Amino acid sequence: MSLDNPLLKHLNEYLKILKELSNLLDTDSLQQNTYQCIRQESYAKAFSDLKKLDIDALLITGQAESLSKKVFLNILKQIEVINKLIEDKDELITHFDFIHLYDKVLLPKMFENKILIARQDLKEIQEKEKPIWVSQCEFDEDKKYWEKELYRVLAERDTYIQDNVHLIQNYYYKIRDYLLTVKEDIYAYYPEDRLRLESDLFEIKDVLKLYNSALELKCFKEGDLAFEDFYLVLNLREPKTQFDSAFKQISKFAQPPLYEMMKDIEKDVRNKVIEFIVLKFKLKSALTISKRFYKPAEEI
Length: 300
Known about the structure:
69% of the residues lie in helices and 0% in strands.
């Protein structure tokens, strides 16, 4: 497909934004300074630009034009890079005071000097005696000018606050959650034929939902357990890469996420899946996960 194709142009633009985001995140140490203000503005713009490029529309167009999934692979890879960077900074992000950055760093940087100068100028003219060669009318007009100048700067600050109050938001998590949805959409439009077998117990979209639930629960890190390996294990198949980290939050993972996905399959098959999960994810035993799985939710 030609690079002049509008769809490819939009996808390249989308990928460019993702790469810029990666570079920003890679060097981000989350400090309460003016550089962080610039970063916050950049994150807000990147998030807005990504949302403007409607990924669902691009995927639908890609389907209509029989576009290969390979075109979307770079986007998927970049999403993984971004989510890993955000995951690695999770503790810093969790404890970062975005309101303080906005109120105590950004606004003073933008307006403190302007307001100070305007007030000083007004004070000088108010305390100054009228020169004998200046009429009272001219002198009063001069005072009104500097009063208006102060009001203008204050109004400029108020307008800026109204237009930019969104900068107190946590764009790290907004970007992360949005990109997880994009990843789900790509998998939904382009199922992994090499991954999915007719004999598999679960659909890719259902396993992906469970995988994302496990990530949110912090059962493991995305870099430690890829979706493909997670999918293979859930469908009683050997993973390509062995899981060597600690699988946490087992009870919360068992119910409701795992329970909701497996509640309608036969008990003996369900037991096999649980045993295989225990084996491949190196859990101590199936006892905890089985108890939680079969125990009614209202008792937990």
